[in-house]
Amino acid sequence: MKSGGALLGGLRFGFGRRVPVVLQSEAAECGLACLAMVAGYHGYETDLGEMRRRFTASLKGMHLSRLMQVAAELRLDARAVRLELDELARLRLPCILHWDMNHFVVLTDVDRNGATIIDPAHGRLTLPLSEVSEAFTGVALELVPAANFEPAARKPSVSLRALAGSVEGLRSALLRVFALALVLEVLGILGPFYMQWVLDEVLVINDHSLLTLLGLGFLAVTLFTAAFSVLRSWVILYVNATLGVQWATNAFAHLMKLPLDFFERRHIGDVVSRYGAIQNIRQTITTELVSAVLDGIMASALLIVMSIYSLELTAVAIGILLLYLLLRWVAYEPLRAATERHIYAGATQQSHLLEAIRGVQALKRFNADSARTARFGNLLVETTNQQIREQQLSILFGAAQHLLLSAGHVAVIWLAALQVMHGGFTIGMLVAYAAYASQFIGRGDGLINAWISFRMLRLYGERLADIALAAPEKNVESTYLGPDPAPHLLAKNLAYRYGADEPWVLEDVSFELAPGESLAVVGLSGCGKSTLVKLLLGLLTAERGELLMGEVDVRQLGLRRYRALVGSVMQADTLFAGTLADNIALANPEASLDDIVAASRAAAVHDEIAALPMGYQSLVGDMGSVLSGGQQQRVLLARALLAKPRVLVLDEATSHLDSLRERQVNDNLRALGITRVVIAHRWESIVQCDRIMRLSDGRLKEVSRQVLEGNLLHQPDAELV
Ligand SMILES: Nc1ncnc2c1ncn2[C@@H]1O[C@H](COP(=O)(O)OP(=O)(O)OP(=O)(O)O)[C@@H](O)[C@H]1O
């Protein structure tokens, strides 16, 4: 039973409330964005950043059932309905429609001719029913506030300090810029007096010596002005550079501290574009912040000076500025929406570009390059269209602004001239007043523009917040004071899934591995072996269960210390741009060449590196394209061995090697006596391990070698999984 308040809250009078537009930034977030819009309509104002932090969506997106769960957490009663197109009008609006089989949109209005929807990927659209019919799958989600629904005002936007981290020397540098600029402004305010004196004092009585004095005096003022203005630009340059470097480094350092699943849930282009938001924020701060403060002070000072001349005329100038403020206020929302769509389209295009570069080989092999180019063209047109729309709006409002301000200026001079005719002003006062009024309107214009820019900054701030406010990896530092634990691994009931609405990939994984022992984990493709490896390396955190090394919980040992003890080679490991030596010495850049050679020998790759013309100084591309697949794997193994790990975790680390090399590598590893966990499909690698376990249905079970060998004989294709 609903409370009366909640029922009344559901009434719609057709005015007042409007569904806010929340644009998604990734394909998988359409469901979250739709919920944010409906919740916003009912009074729970939120944004995508907050939604993402509260309800993680995996890259695969959300099912309807998960949407209903999230709706329940937002205290909205959700009801999924199946209906025909002509029944849309019976839905309680706004509601969510399942769209094109893989998307969600919000339906805000529907009548006989068409429907208005908000597509989180494109914004508000009005479509004829024929188009709705093509995309609508027949499933809708009605949402009404539950009895315990609580409206919430949007949280104040994140502070710049939280976004930027601490920036040294910013305050003092800004103060310096401010002081210099203030001097300049005061000098600037003297200019109109010069005109007034020349007109009223010099010309009237033909006073040559006064003219000379005034001329020299104001020439000196001009010189000072030039010098201060150079100094101010210099300091701004310094602030810009300092802020830029510190800020970008802070954000990068924070990005590197984020847990792996932050990256696994996002597209690389999106992360890059969000990181790029720093540029826009910095630009606004350094160019607009100081001038906004100055404009405010100067506008007030000018207002006082102008009031001394004439109160009525000053009221007119204020009126003009207020009209201008109204114009900007009306223009704000369309401009903000256009800017947001522009940013979103740009990020999508960037993702596409990065993905195409990374996958260029596959695109060529499948003759998909022209289709990819066409899609890129479409995205580019979309971005450009949004940019054109943004600029068209700017041009229109710019013209209106120019018209208003110029007309205002004419009016002020007109009225001041009337004052001269009535004897209230001298000619000099008219000229000086006109100059002050023009400065005042200019300052007011600057102040209003800065206010708009700062409001727009929120858009970029919210994008950056996704990185800056994401929680860094936990348990990185050690709280265990004892010596390094023995390489004895104990996993107890580990469980993991990639999202709250995803199935458990690992349900109950337990095993124990004594020092020096080696364990092969086999299982069907997709059963969760790589996921288990990521848990063992502390890259993912188990939802349940614990992992101990030498009886010390890994959380207590700290991930940094644990990772220094555990070496690994992963399926999709990459080399970095640089020399082979740099790559092998990744964990220990100070390592001697002897250490590097020893690790390479153990990984059976030394001879091939030594045979290269530049040996260990050979450069590899950032995708390692100089080396063959098998060579890359062995270089990666050398990199893991260089740090002298106590435990080695290998996820299909020798899959590209021929059997001879594989045996050689395995023999070397065995001789080193390192505790090993090996994920492999090939018999060669499995058979050399002391124990074999099979992962299936989220559980790990010991398999006897004989059974596996028997399987091999009878079903050569099935045994290795
Ligand atoms: N980032 C992710 N988000 C959501 N699901 C994921 C993610 N990564 C993997 N999965 C899912 O988890 C399951 C296990 O994946 P995993 O990569 O661990 O399998 P695997 O046993 O290593 O497979 P293979 O032998 O083919 O490498 C798969 O069903 C996969 O769809």
From TrEMBL:
It is found in: Cell membrane. Residues 489-721 form the ABC transporter domain. Its main location: membrane. It is a multi-pass membrane protein. Keywords: ATP-binding, Cell membrane, Membrane, Nucleotide-binding, Transmembrane, Transmembrane helix, Transport. Residues 24-143 form the Peptidase C39 domain. The chain crosses the membrane at residues 173-197, 209-228, 297-327, 395-417. One of its GO terms (molecular function) is cysteine-type peptidase activity. Gene3D superfamilies: ABC transporter type 1, transmembrane domain, Cysteine proteinases, P-loop containing nucleotide triphosphate hydrolases. SUPFAM superfamilies: ABC transporter transmembrane region, P-loop containing nucleoside triphosphate hydrolases. It comes from the Bacteria. GO terms for cellular component: plasma membrane. SMART domains: AAA. One of its GO terms (biological process) is proteolysis. Residues 177-456 form the ABC transmembrane type-1 domain. PANTHER family: ATP-BINDING CASSETTE SUB-FAMILY B, COLICIN V SECRETION-PROCESSING ATP-BINDING PROTEIN. This is ABC transporter.
